[in-house]
Every structure is written in structure tokens, then in C-alpha cells.
């Protein structure tokens, strides 16, 4: 119905993304999905808590400034006080924030479809819909901590309002799908939608380490769930000594991880590079052999979805090593498209790395299979086309103004 409506009126579907910070280097999947919607003729706008234009040169792209639907802060000038208000209001935060959300809800009214990234933002929009302030269908994309945290606290039922007032829940993996259905979401309204990468923009390049130092690399935020501590501990056990390890990313654990590398006696072979532009990340991936990301469930419940960094590494021809965690086994099959070890099992992880170090030739067909996996199941071009089709169909559900 919506495709016909667009043809008759010659108007694009208006899709509004609700996110926290925009644009965000750690959420390139949001930027890629927005780009996909623009490519499919949609009018895209963003409502966020905070804009970062001029604050992060790595993603400060004119494309995001010039979105047809504009980028606006949900709370306007009051948004800068949001962290302070949250701290001050304590147990009354939900009521206070919802009241302010309702007051500024007009910023969402022109949308034909609203896409909330992360369950917390979906909950905010669902509360506004429940009170009749907006009528657009709501799609909520669940990524990681928005499921893992509530599972840890036994509060996943907080999303009941989302299930009742949204039209579609789109977890990024089947593990989250099962969790949402188990807590009350209708199976008919839960659809796994992977994030992905564009293989056409990532050159596949196999590099053997048979006659050169073995180069390991990780690209991630330096938080507990990324498991870099266990990568360092496993590498310290590696019998082969001609290796180096580059860690790209910033985060609260940087000083602690540097100290650990020093304590393990491997600091001279580990290079913490901090945040880097995406173009540089791609180049460093081309120059490395093995991508390591032994993700773990954090002690506060934070979980991975399926890390996009793993997808990029697989598309680029690296041998990938990760863990049996959350949705990662949906991407990596042990010894078929990469290598997996149990979470926090340093001995098992070290054994995987040692086998890889000694067997470069058998790793090449695994890398080829990994690239094919990305092309088949995690291709952002295909996924964005699917997402745009779903959003266009949902646009016909909007109640008349």
C-alpha cells in the first residue's frame, strides 16, 4: 500500500531515527542504516539527546548535517542538563523524563515511521505513543546492554510498553529475540535483523604469516565486555615470540589494560592506538593477520549484539578469534569461519591463538569462508534494502493526522 501511496503523491517516506548521541563513532551501524534509507529515497531525520558535530572529527561528515529531515535534540536546550536532572531526580526520573519527552513530542509528529535504536529509546517513544501524542509506527532495534542489563537485573519486563505500543521489535541476534519473546513480546512482532557491512567497500586480502612476524589486532571500545584483558593474558602465553598486537579504541579501561600488558611482560609488543578514523582502521586491518575480540558478559550484564568490527575483519580476509558469547556464534562457526573459545577461558583462547600461529596455510580457506559468510548473511546493502522495504510497508500504518 505504501509503495502505491508514494507513487501517487510523489512523496518520500519520512523516517525518524531516535538515538542517544549523533553522530557517534561507536555506532557506525546507525550511520550505515541511515545511509541505506537515503539511498532508497527516504527522507531521514534524527532526534537525539546530544549532537556531536564539531566534537568528533572521525564522524563529523557533512552528510549527517544535511539530512533532509534534520538533526534535532529531543529536549532542545534542556538536553544539556539531562545527566544532571537524572542524578537529581533519583527515583522520580522516569516520571520527570517522560513529562519532558511529552512536552517536546511534536518533534516526532511528522514522521511516517520512527526507528528507535536501543530499547531505552524505544521505551521513551512508546510512552509518548501510549499517551496519544504521536501516531507513527514504532520500530525498536535492540543491540546489547539494553537486553543484557535488564536480563541481569531481572527487569526485562520494563519493555512491556514497547511491546504493546510498538509494531516491530528488531533484535540484532536470535539470542535477544528469544529473550524478548520469553518476557512477553509477541513472536509475530519480533524479527531478527542483523547489522552488517558493505563487502564492496572492503577489499579481501589474505596475508600469510609463515615468513613474517604475526600481527594481531583488535578494534573496539575499551570496556569490560570486549574482553581485551583475556586477549592480553592469552597472548602472554603464546610460545611464538615474534608477534605484535595493535589495539584501536578508547575507553575507561585504557590505563588498566596498559598496566596489565606491562605486568605480563608484553608491553613492548602491544600498541594502544586510541580512537582512529574509519579509513585508517581499514588500512590497519589490511596490514594485520589475526583479529582478536574475546567478548564476555560484563558483571553489570552488558552484552554484545554481534560486533560489526568482527564482520569488517572477516570481510577483509583476517583470521578472526572470538568467544561463545551472545549472538557471535551466529556469525562465526568455530574452525569453519573463524575460531571461538569459551568466555574468560584464557587457556582455551591461548590454545586457539597458538594453533593459528603454527598453521597459517589451513587458516586461508577459513578466511575465504568467512568472507563468503559476510557476503551472504551480513551484507549491509542487502540488509538495508530489506530494512527500507519493511519501513516503507509500515509507513502505511500511520494513523491520519
Q: Profile the largest sheet.
A: 6 strands, parallel
Q: Structurally, how many domains make up the residues?
A: 2
On the 0 to 100 scale, the average pLDDT is 93
CATH topology (fold) name of the largest domain = Rossmann fold
Name given to the CATH homologous superfamily of the largest domain = Glycogen Phosphorylase B
> Could you tell me the strand content as a percent range?
5-15%
How many extended strands? 14
DSSP helix fraction: 40-55%
Instruction: Flag low-confidence runs.
Output: none
In N-to-C order, the SSE pattern is HEEHEEHEHHEHEHHEHEHEHEHEHEEHHH
Number of helices: 16
Class derived from helix and strand content = alpha/beta
Organism: Mesorhizobium album
Keywords: Glycosyltransferase, Transferase
Enzyme class: transferase
EC number: 2.4.-.-
Based on the model shown, name its key terms.
2 domains; 401 residues; Rossmann fold; 16 helices; six-stranded parallel beta sheet; alpha/beta
Would you mind describing this structure in some detail?
- This is Glycosyltransferase.
- Its EC number is 2.4.-.-.
- Belongs to the glycosyltransferase group 1 family. Glycosyltransferase 4 subfamily.
- It holds the Pfam family Glycos_transf_1.
- With 401 residues, this protein is of the alpha/beta class.
- It has helices spanning 2-9, 28-39, 62-65, 82-89, 93-103, 119-130, 145-153, 160-165, 174-182, 228-235, 254-263, 278-287, 308-316, 346-358, 360-377, 380-395, and strands at 14-18, 21-22, 43-48, 50-51, 71-73, 113-117, 138-141, 168-169, 214-219, 243-248, 270-274, 290-292, 319-323, 339-341.
- The chain folds into two domains: 2-196 and 380-395, Glycogen Phosphorylase B (Rossmann fold, 3-Layer(aba) Sandwich); 199-377, Glycogen Phosphorylase B (Rossmann fold), CATH 3.40.50.2000.
- It is built from 16 helices and 14 strands.
- The strands form three sheets. A six-stranded parallel β-sheet has the order 5-3-1-6-7-8. A six-stranded parallel β-sheet has the order 11-10-9-12-13-14, sandwiched between helices. It has a two-stranded parallel ribbon with strand order 2-4.
- Helix 2 (28-39) packs across helix 16 (380-395) and helix 13 packs across helix 15 (360-377).
- The longest helix is centred in the C-terminal third of the chain and has 18 residues, at 360-377.
Amino acid at each position: 500500500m505504501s509503495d502505491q501511496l508514494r507513487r501517487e503523491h510523489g512523496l518520500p517516506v519520512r523516517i525518524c531515527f531516535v538515538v542517544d548521541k549523533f553522530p557517534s563513532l561507536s555506532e557506525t551501524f546507525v550511520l550505515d542504516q541511515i545511509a541505506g534509507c537515503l539511498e532508497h529515497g527516504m527522507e531521514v531525520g534524527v532526534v537525539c539527546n546530544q549532537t556531536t558535530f564539531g566534537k568528533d572529527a572521525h564522524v563529523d561528515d557533512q552528510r549527517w548535517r544535511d539530512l533532509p529531515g534534520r538533526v534535532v535534540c529531543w529536549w532542545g536546550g534542556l538536553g544539556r542538563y539531562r545527566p544532571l536532572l537524572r542524578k537529581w531526580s533519583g527515583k522520580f526520573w522516569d516520571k520527570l523524563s517522560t513529562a519532558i519527552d511529552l512536552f517536546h513530542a511534536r518533534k516526532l509528529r511528522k514522521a511516517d515511521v520512527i526507528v528507535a535504536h536501543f530499547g531505552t529509546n524505544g521505551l521513551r517513544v512508546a510512552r509518548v505513543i501510549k499517551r496519544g501524542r504521536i501516531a507513527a509506527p514504532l520500530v525498536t532495534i535492540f543491540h546489547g546492554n539494553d537486553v543484557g542489563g535488564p536480563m541481569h537485573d531481572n527487569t526485562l519486563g520494563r519493555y512491556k510498553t514497547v511491546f504493546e505500543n510498538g509494531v516491530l521489535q528488531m533484535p540484532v541476534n536470535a539470542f535477544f529475540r528469544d529473550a524478548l519473546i520469553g518476557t512477553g513480546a509477541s513472536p509475530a512482532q519480533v524479527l531478527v535483523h542483523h547489522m552488517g557491512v558493505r563487502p564492496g567497500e572492503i577489499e579481501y586480502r589474505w596475508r600469510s604469516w609463515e615468513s613474517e612476524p604475526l600481527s594481531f589486532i583488535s578494534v573496539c571500545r575499551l570496556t569490560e565486555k570486549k574482553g581485551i584483558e583475556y586477549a592480553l593474558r592469552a597472548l602472554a602465553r603464546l610460545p611464538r615470540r615474534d608477534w605484535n598486537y595493535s589495539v584501536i579504541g578508547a575507553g575507561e579501561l585504557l590505563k588498566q589494560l596498559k598496566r596489565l600488558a606491562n605486568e605480563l611482560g608484553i608491553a613492548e609488543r602491544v600498541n594502544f592506538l586510541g580512537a582512529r578514523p574509519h579509513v585508517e582502521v581499514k588500512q590497519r586491518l589490511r596490514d594485520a593477520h589475526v583479529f582478536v575480540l574475546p567478548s564476555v558478559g560484563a558483571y553489570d550484564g552488558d552484552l554484545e549484539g554481534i560486533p560489526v568490527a568482527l564482520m569488517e575483519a572477516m570481510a577483509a580476509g583476517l583470521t578472526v578469534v572470538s568467544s561463545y558469547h551472545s549472538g557471535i556464534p551466529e556469525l562465526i562457526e568455530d574452525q569453519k569461519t573463524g575460531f571461538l573459545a569459551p568466555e574468560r577461558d584464557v587457556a582455551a583462547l591461548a590454545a586457539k591463538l597458538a594453533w593459528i600461529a603454527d598453521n597459517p596455510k589451513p587458516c586461508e580457506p577459513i578466511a575465504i569462508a568467512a568472507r563468503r559468510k559476510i557476503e551472504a548473511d551480513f551484507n549491509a546493502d542487502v540488509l538495508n534494502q530489506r530494512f527500507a522495504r519493511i519501513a516503507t510497508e509500515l509507513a502505511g500504518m500511520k494513523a491520519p493526522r
